[in-house]
Inverse folding.
């Protein structure tokens, strides 16, 4: 469908005085790691009555917002600013422009805590995705592969979701806030499906001698058709049985997709196996999400399988891989990286599965999952933070 991420036509990058601003993955992956640790730490403190959120924010809404718009938003920005440059051979934001984008994202995260009125928080938060799209417009629109343009539509949709959420938070249309959060979740699912379809077969064949990853055109078309249909259904008839059937169908399609890419040797290479693990969590979560309208299964089980497992594990693996590749280092997961991957998966088990099996210890499972999550991303910062702020190991620009 789309050209592989590794088959790049990347342009030469002018040396940057500040390595952190040399390429988009650097500031945004560092930001993602930081917010992953801090936001969950604050959330656990809020649940235990240790911290109070700024006026106008309720705990669940803030937690969901910072995970989707804060953490995942930073990962999406860092990935696209780096990958689009590879895919199209066109420069993306670096230096002062990249710094401005990163500071806009940071300002939205800090605004409520610095006492800014909710409309100011809204303006900063809503502006981020359109500004990111604007910075990528020329590269995505003028490239030979027109399919890349879908990312502009997705970023526009993410800007719309921020607007919906803030219309709710500001009391203008309270019912729109959960709709906006769900739309953002569905757009992230679509983004992950697009990225996985591009990188998983390529990474498998490149990382395993003789591997043949199969992508079937009918399955690819069905995947994106169902993903868009589910996105629409979640807005028109959320929680209904038809929506549930769409989620189940999308999850089953991913099982077929995953089977075509899979090579069992991938599990012996953690830098590749973590992507399979994250994608399996996403598949599991979609199926659980579809089963909820037909059973007594709590919706939070599916939600956290998708978010903690699918989004968290997959993006952690992608950040590690992209950082290694774009800082000129061998594509090898260190022991601490493997531990981070294991802790992220354990966090998903503790948050999505354990409360279902042992509901009497619900808060304890949340604490345990949160601690594992913070440790996983703390290890990411420990191992990859220095790589993100220093020049490439091979002396090349970028």
């Amino acid at each position: 469908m789309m050209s592989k991420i590794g088959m790049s036509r990347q342009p030469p990058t002018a040396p940057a005085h500040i390595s952190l601003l040399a390429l988009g993955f650097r500031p945004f992956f560092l930001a993602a790691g930081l917010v992953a640790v801090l936001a969950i730490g604050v959330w656990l403190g809020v649940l235990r009555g240790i911290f109070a959120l700024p006026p106008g924010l309720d705990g669940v809404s803030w937690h969901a917002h910072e995970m989707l718009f804060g953490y995942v938003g930073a990962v999406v920005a860092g990935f696209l600013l780096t990958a689009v440059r590879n895919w199209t051979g066109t420069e993306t934001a670096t230096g002062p422009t990249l710094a401005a984008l990163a500071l806009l994202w940071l300002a939205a995260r800090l605004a409520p805590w610095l006492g800014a009125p909710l409309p100011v928080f809204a303006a900063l938060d809503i502006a981020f995705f359109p500004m990111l799209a604007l910075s990528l417009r020329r590269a995505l629109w003028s490239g030979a592969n027109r399919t890349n343009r879908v990312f502009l539509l997705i970023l526009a949709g993410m800007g719309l979701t921020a607007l919906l959420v803030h219309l709710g938070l500001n009391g203008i249309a309270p019912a729109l806030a959960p709709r906006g959060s769900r739309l953002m979740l569905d757009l992230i699912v679509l983004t992950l499906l697009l990225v996985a379809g591009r990188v998983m077969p390529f990474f498998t064949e490149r990382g395993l001698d003789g591997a043949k990853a199969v992508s079937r055109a009918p399955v690819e078309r069905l995947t994106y058709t169902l993903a868009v249909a589910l996105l629409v259904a979640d807005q028109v008839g959320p929680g209904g049985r038809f929506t549930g059937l769409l989620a189940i169908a999308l999850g089953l399609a991913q099982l077929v997709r995953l089977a075509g890419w899979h090579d069992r040797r991938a599990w012996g290479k953690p830098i590749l196996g973590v992507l399979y693990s994250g994608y399996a969590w996403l598949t599991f979560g979609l199926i659980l999400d579809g089963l909820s309208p037909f059973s007594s299964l709590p919706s939070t089980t599916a939600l956290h399988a998708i978010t903690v497992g699918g989004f968290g594990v997959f993006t952690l693996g992608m950040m590690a891989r992209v950082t290694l590749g774009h800082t000129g280092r061998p594509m090898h997961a260190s022991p601490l990286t493997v531990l981070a991957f294991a802790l992220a998966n354990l966090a998903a088990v503790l948050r999505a599965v354990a409360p279902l099996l042992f509901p009497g210890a619900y808060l304890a499972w949340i604490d345990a999952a949160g601690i594992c999550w913070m440790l996983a991303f703390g290890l990411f910062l420990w191992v990859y933070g220095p790589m993100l702020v220093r020049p490439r190991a091979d002396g090349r620009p970028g």
Remarks:
- Residues 45 and 51 are 5 Å apart (CA to CA).
- The first helix runs from residue 25 to 47.
- Residues 18-174 form one domain.
